[in-house]
## 1
Amino acid sequence: MPYLTHLFVYIATYIILAIGLNLSIGFTGLLNLGHVAFLGIGAYTSALLTLAGVPFPLAFLAAGIFAALFAPLLMYLTKNVRGDYLALSTLGFGLVAHAVFLNWISLTHGPLGIPGIPRPDIFGFVVSSRIEFFLFTVTIAGIVLFIIWLLTSSRYGTLLGAIRDDELAVAMLGKNVMRLKIQSLAIAAFLAGIAGSLSAHYITYIDPTAYDIPEIIFIVSVVIVGGLASLRGTVVATILLVLLPEALRFVDLPSSVLGPSRQLLYAVFLLLILLYRPRGLFGTVELE
């Protein structure tokens, strides 16, 4: 039971993270590969603030807000690039953020990381046990899902989809495309920031290795497998991609074989999805 609870805490956290990325990539058409930078910014912000004595609710909100503040900067720096070039530019943003986490030793403690991060204290109630953290994280994920569903089902969501499909046509209708892109990326960054806060306070330790290339690959894989512009797909893909490699833990294999086998199973699953469901499990659009 504690093992399953641990896994579902991770699943709920990744759902929040992946929903934000799907909002920017799937619903708005922004090939953002720097999403993991917002995750790290949120984690470090929340950890440092709570260790400095700031109450968790304020640190939690600050994690999302501070991450979101980088969205206008990123959009401004990449305003003249599209498609693959945007993907590479945002990937560079993620790598720069990782370098900052690794080398700003006076603030982040560099490769040593930050230990002793306190568990969430919400107005006197400390979320200490795994089951309590599971319920807390699932509640946050449910609220996020509902809000993003309302957003994407509204006229505003239709406008974001129009930017993804034909940015020039939206501009010709007199809409401020850049502002809409910034808003979409800021919401995605906010969600990544609060996901970073949740993960930091659950593990009670963070270091730069958690915000590097492998994490980027996993989050993007969730969006691709679930399907672009599909909230249901994001939830299902997160559950599948977290639980699928874990199934091999119950197979009697030597440790030297178990690790590569998990990676192989993960790769085969992704390959099958790309071959037979190129739009993902529930996707309705293709990103060109």
## 2
Amino acid sequence: MAIFLTKDSKVIVQGMTGSEGMKHTRRMLASGTQIVGGVNPRKAGTTVDVDGTNVPVFGSVAEAMKETGADVTVIFVPPKFTKDAVVEAIDAEIGLAVVITEGVPVHDSAAFWAYAGSKGNKTRIIGPNCPGLISPGQSNAGIIPADITTTGPIGLVSKSGTLTYQLMYELRDLGFSSAVGIGGDPVIGTTHIDALAAFEADPETKIIVMIGEIGGDAEERAAAYIAEHVTKPVVGYVAGFTAPEGKTMGHAGAIVSGSSGTAQAKKEALEAAGVKVGKTPSETARLARELFNAAK
């Protein structure tokens, strides 16, 4: 099985006709994703040939959903237009909106996050500033390479795109049910806890790998959730042990202020909840493999 994204998911791409949107639409199609349309009001009614596949372009998310039955949108629009694109997806009540765009103003992310809540959270938001998600062998919504891993029993949730790819590659012999890159901005849609709950409920996921990083308290809250609600083995990694205080590292949300948000504090909280925490990504992969072998 998979979480959030399956072989039956019908995907549209907001911003498909731009350079990034087209590049990754081509990659998603090549990996087997059902891309059923693009959205660009200025090019509505046209079709785009993507490596031999004719993909229609619609004027709005609502029109695309009506014509194709789409239930997922992947958003590749510039930061200043991202809030409007996400609000449009929410208004259309599409089931999943994957916001790839980096550099979205935090107040815009907070605004569309709150708007989704005011509309009953009918649209799950992943991101912004994320690599998307993949259910290997089924569907790929975003920019995650489709050829670095296989289908298997591991569920992965990560703030970091690069570390998502590394763990997927290092554990490719075991494989993944789904990998979800939630993004590292201060305000995001789907959280570690959301993914943990979904993996806990997924019978095909046997082990969960959770990648966090310095800044905020998301990992501490995830640790508390694991202690109360997760029965499956969890392996963790926290990026940023050597980050200097007060300096943003990579992601906008990865900043330590005083003793708040440090990698050590997150590691201790996770270990207190029974999570095995690796000191490096490779050690984390080794711990996951050991847990898998022990559970056989």
## 3
Amino acid sequence: MPELPEVETVMRGLAPVMLNNKVSKVKLYRKDLRVPFPKNMEGELAGLSIVSLKRRAKYILVYFDGGLILSVHLGMSGRILINPKNNKYDLKKHDHMVITLQDGVQIIYNDPRRFGMVFILKASELETHAAFRHLGPEPLGNEFSAPYLVESFKNKKASIKQALLDQRMVVGVGNIYASEALYQSNINPQKLAGEITAKKAEELVIATRDVLRRAINAGGSTLKDYRHTDGGLGYFQHNFQVYDQEGKACPDCNCNIDKTGGIKRIVQSGRSTFYCPSKQK
């Protein structure tokens, strides 16, 4: 599933072609994804000018003049591709939505597994909308801090890894980047969230931000379906320290792989976690 760095990368790829442009037409090729497409979506968006693009958690938000927002969630396998103006495009299998802009550029939403979501809301409803009202702070924002973590995780019996994946606590970190941030901050992923100290919380905040920023700069991680808006791949997967590195030597400590067996893989809440037991306490 695309996480914060992948969604941020897609949003940044869309901005140069969508900003200050207008929607010419919208064409839908099925009635629904995980939820139905909005009723009269084609008519509601046609002619509107795009004034800004933002990301909230794993949602891409396209702001229009007049106060409407088009919200797009990529789900498990969603992709958004840009077809340049004056370039003939042949519809592909699993292309479910095509937005044609005034200058002829096409924005294509493709989703083989159809777990994505597309809906329209008013900007004034954003904080109270069902999809957003439960969301925690952005990990790259000022609200995500050591005092916030200590207070939010107080008395939590869940593991620190599970807590990082809880969208009510902090949004968008995701399974891969939680493993990488915990490794970088020397925290065992099985440690109870309620036991984190202020010092370790500060280290975790710094590590989480660093991992996410480096992943954004690398265009995200491509493991299966994820692609950039130009069809290219992310390459942060080449920088993984522990994720998907089971049995390999820990890159940042002197543990004896013959004795320790290298990086370990465990399953937490049905998700794979990778860590170094010697380094992460």
